[in-house]
Amino acid sequence: MASRDSQTPNIVFILSDDQGAWAMGCAGSEELDTPNLDRLASSGIRFENFFCASPVCSPARASILTGQIPSQHGVQDFLRRGNSAHLPQDGEEIEYMRGRRSYIQTLAENGYVCGLSGKWHLGRSALPQLGFDYWSVHASGGGSYYRAPMLREGELYQPDGYVTDVITDHALEFLDAQLDTSAPFSLNVHYTAPHAPWGREHHPARLFDDHWENTAFDSVPDEDIHFDQLAKEPGAATLGDTPENRRLALSGYFTAIEEMDRNIGRLLDWLEENGLRRDTLVIFSADNGMNMGHHGIWGKGNGTYPPNMFDTAVKVPTLISRPSHVPQDLVCDKLLSQYDFMPTLLGYLALDATSDQPLPGRDFSAVLRGESMADGSPVFVLDEYGPTRMIRTRSWKYVHRYSDHPNELYDLTNDPLETRNLADEPGHGERAAALRSELEIWYERYADPRMDGARNGVTGRGQIGLAGSEDCDKPFADDVAFFHER
Question: How many CB atoms lie within 10 A of CB 79?
Fold first, then answer.
């Protein structure tokens, strides 16, 4: 077995799907049992103010890998078309990431063996992309937890097992293969959990029926359905519109998290058993946050139209651990974003981040070394979902909509749950204008005019073609239907 030195640590990046920052035991949820996420938090840093680049899966995942914002890389909604020709509901292969550069490519060029097990959802799923060598991926972006459509060597197959277990099995297969080499490795483990569906038939009965039967779910708000809540298609996520449906949805959601946590334990155990835990930087995060009844919304940013930018949708759980190297049992409250991952991971390894466009992210690797970010600490983070954009400081949040929908302003010091929109109230116009100016200066600096989401008709109903392409007249679906109109 090869040993690694401190200058060339391995990397294991674990990414969950639709997990709110609130949905971990170490984040204060008393109803969720997540011993392995808690294990990462106690052996490393928990970031309590970490934000997604966009509150929906595909754009956020592209930003994590490339360091670019959606208005640069062009993926601005979940990919509804172009994932796989094997899928009858899709049937196309669109290479949305063509011409983009990821931090994985930089690692591969510097001797790392790079693998991906799990969710890709960035187009043409059969093709290994962005520097990954090992490639075992979900053919689409989600769906049934049993007999999930998976791709290996370009071939579709449907394993009988629970997909969270299957993704971990393949990750361990990759790790076992690294024991015979002295090269460092980088492994991305992208779960589909805890994304819907949440029905009993999709999850192990030992948890679903036995564990949650007497749980009150008091840790999650129970509110009337938000007026802007979008309707769900048959077979899609369960809405908590009745007590029975609320219990069903939360039981499935919590089960998916606890089953994922069990599998994260398998990965950590492997690293420990093979003497590689201290030589491996382990990152856990999510693609976007999730409202599970918060604000009366069931879904992430596209749970509503126009998209919502509540903290429950845009904050993501983030843990980084490497015993004896990264500070242990530390909570970091700095404002950080997914677009910071690429410069930080490469900065931690003393490698340069290269891109065909200016990267907006900041290198926070000093925090991982137990040092101060000094003057590099960001004073705000930004988020986008097409023509909806957010700028957030520690104390204030401003949401600007370039479509014909209301803007929002929240005083987070006095209203941390974002219940009172001050945008149109007397005395707040100057602050809203100042935040809007900062937002527009930032996007003018970084957005690619060909990909500028503010100019696109992104409704949260999925991307169906390449943005900025002359060959695609309509890259975004717009079949919006509201729950209250059902």
Answer: 27
Instruction: Please give the structure tokens belonging to residue 354.
Output: 């290269």
Kindly indicate whether the domain formed by 10-374 is annotated with CATH number 3.40.190.10. Answer: no
Of the candidates 145, 126, 258, 255, the residue with the CA atom closest to the CA atom of residue 192: 145
Give the H/E segment covering residue 174: helix 163-177
- For residue 18, the cross-strand partners are none
Report the distance separating Cα 399 and Cα 315, nearest Å. 15
- Give the residue extent of every domain in the chain: 10-374
Q: pLDDT of 58-101, one tens digit each?
A: 999 999 999 999 999 999 999 999 999 989 889 899 999 999 99
Q: How far apart are CA 349 and CA 442, in angstroms?
A: 28
- The residues near 332 (Cβ < 8 Å, ≥ 6 apart) are 45, 46, 47, 48, 49, 367
Beta carbons of 463 and 78 less than 8 angstroms apart: yes
> Is residue 221 within 8 Å of residue 293, measured between CB atoms?
yes
Q: How, if at all, do strands 44-47 and 330-332 pair?
A: parallel
pLDDT (tens digit per residue) in 222-234: 999 999 999 987 6
User: φ and ψ at 138, to 5 degrees?
Assistant: -75, 135
Beta bridge partners of 20: none
273-to-1, 216, 259, 268 alpha-carbon distances in Å: 12, 38, 21, 9
Query: From CA 55, how far away is CA 118, in angstroms rounded?
Result: 20
Tokens 């204008």, located at residue: 433
Coil/strand/helix, residue 127: coil
- Residue 3: its pLDDT value, please? 40
pLDDT surpassing 60 at residue 104? yes
Tokens representing residue 361 in the block: 């992210």
3-state class of 118 per DSSP? strand
Task: Give the whole-angstrom CA distance, residue 448 versus residue 408.
Answer: 25
Angstrom distance (rounded) from CA 101 to CA 311: 29
Q: Taking Cα atoms as reference points, which of 337, 204, 298 lies closest to residue 260?
A: 204
The reported pTM is 0.97
Res 4 pLDDT > 60? no
Could you give the angle at which helices 341-348 and 57-66 cross, rounded to 10 degrees? 30
Q: Got the DSSP string for 138-170?
A: ESSS---SBS--EEETTEEE--SSBHHHHHHHH
pLDDT over 60 (residue 235):
no
Integer Rg of the chain from CA: 21
Q: What percent of the chain has pLDDT over 70?
A: 97
- In sequence order, the 6+-apart residues with CB closer than 8 A to the CB of 103 are 65, 66, 67, 341, 342, 345, 346, 353
